[in-house]
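Worked example 3 (structure in, sequence out).
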């Protein structure tokens, strides 16, 4: 028993040391001597990830500062270090920022650790919030943990089917139809094909592989686990069938053989260069980028709902993936009231409209359905339709560990190291051990 305790103490020390070193690295990237603020002027700091979202939020902040007098200071981090840095800082109790941008899948982890503040007290205080103006029902998703709201979304992402309409007049409705269509446009199978691959999709870790596979998994009727009960479903017949579909694409070389190296940008490039006839599942965010490109194929590239599974009655079941990037208040913030004012404005209808005009996809029905965006953002109508049937990943406090197990299983399939049945069976066993430990620790 003493040896076990000593190991636990040593492990805890190592983890704390890693957090401390990571904290120093992050703090070196943050401005230690920020610009001087006028006497009496309030200021909040926002930690965000570099990208379209950060640029759009900066536009929102300009209007917010003029109307409230609250200065907004941003710290941007690259995609490669963002998740590690955010987790390290929040769990260490940093005061370096007041608001943090996090994906909805991180909320359970940070809320369970009390690293972010619940938003319900701010929303329920009539002196702080006009609930009618906030209009929670207008949000496509509001993210909660154990029934308590911890974050509001600024941006929504989901999956589309992208296809070359000059080659494929009608988009495939089912995964079987997509497979047959992809066969025709794979050069190694059909020498007359004008494209190298019939299909492609992102498959890198950590952000792509499991999320992209989710649309396949769920539409086949499979799942990783049930959120409330934590029952593992990854080795169910339906889940294995989804894995076998991916395995078939790999074995027949319908998708690129180096698929594990294909990320968001490489997938977009494959469409724009005419290398691939289709991309699915693939992120909605690529559509405006494609239409604003100089590719000779841009006008032929169109979008449709992700395919589904047809039952005996002819009904097609589609379950696209969706997730949101949200704003949450750091539990160690020294300016929580001002932070709430910014979140309320940035995720509100006015802020959302600014966000949309600057390339973002606001998580509000009223904006996605606004006729004024039909010409400039034709993808909004499909996003709105897709979100009506889309699904989230499980919101569990052990999400990173769950995803790590799933990613390894998928990597075995893509590299043809193991069959879908074997890799999913092994992963399911690991997942049951993980959920068992978490259930014991929560007692």
């Amino acid at each position: 028993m003493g040896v076990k305790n000593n190991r636990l103490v040593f492990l805890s020390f190592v983890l704390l040391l890693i957090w401390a070193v990571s904290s120093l690295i992050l703090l070196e990237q943050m401005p230690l001597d920020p610009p001087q603020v006028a006497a009496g002027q309030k200021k909040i700091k926002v930690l965000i990830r570099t990208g379209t979202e950060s640029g759009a939020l900066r536009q929102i902040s300009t209007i917010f500062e003029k109307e409230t007098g609250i200065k907004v200071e941003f710290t941007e981090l690259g995609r490669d270090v963002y998740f590690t840095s955010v987790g390290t800082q929040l769990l260490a109790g940093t005061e370096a920022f007041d608001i943090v941008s996090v994906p909805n899948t991180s909320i359970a982890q940070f809320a369970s650790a009390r690293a972010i503040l619940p938003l319900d007290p701010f929303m329920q205080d009539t002196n702080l919030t006009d609930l009618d103006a906030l209009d929670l029902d207008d949000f496509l998703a509001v993210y909660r943990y154990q029934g308590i709201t911890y974050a509001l979304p600024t941006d929504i992402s989901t999956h589309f089917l992208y296809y070359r309409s000059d080659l494929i007049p009608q988009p495939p409705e089912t995964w079987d139809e997509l497979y047959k269509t992809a066969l025709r446009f794979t050069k190694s199978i059909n020498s007359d094909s004008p494209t190298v691959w019939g299909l492609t999709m992102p498959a890198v870790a950590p952000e792509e592989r499991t999320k992209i596979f989710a649309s396949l998994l769920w539409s086949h009727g499979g799942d990783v686990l049930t959120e409330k009960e934590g029952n593992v479903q990854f080795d169910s017949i339906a889940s294995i069938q989804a894995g076998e579909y991916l395995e078939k694409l790999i074995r027949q070389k319908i998708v690129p053989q180096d698929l594990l190296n294909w990320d968001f940008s490489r997938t977009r490039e494959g469409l724009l260069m005419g290398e691939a006839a289709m991309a699915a599942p693939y992120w909605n965010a690529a559509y405006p980028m494609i239409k604003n490109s100089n590719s000779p194929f841009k006008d032929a590239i169109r979008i449709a709902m992700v395919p589904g599974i047809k039952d005996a009655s002819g009904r097609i079941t589609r379950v696209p993936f969706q997730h949101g990037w949200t704003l949450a208040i750091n539990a160690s913030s020294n300016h929580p009231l001002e932070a709430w004012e910014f979140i309320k404005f940035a995720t509100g209808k006015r802020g959302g409209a600014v966000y949309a005009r600057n390339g973002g996809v606001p998580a509000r029905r009223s904006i996605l359905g606004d006729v004024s965006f039909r010409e400039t953002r034709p993808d909004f109508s499909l996003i709105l339709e897709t979100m009506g049937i889309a699904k989230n990943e499980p919101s569990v406090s052990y999400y990173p560990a769950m995803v790590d197990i799933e990613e390894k299983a998928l990597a075995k399939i893509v590299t043809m190291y193991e069959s879908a049945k074997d890799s999913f069976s092994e992963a399911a066993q690991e997942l049951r051990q993980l959920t068992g430990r978490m259930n014991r620790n929560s007692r």
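Notes: Confidence is low (pLDDT under 50) at residues 1-39. The radius of gyration is 23 Å.
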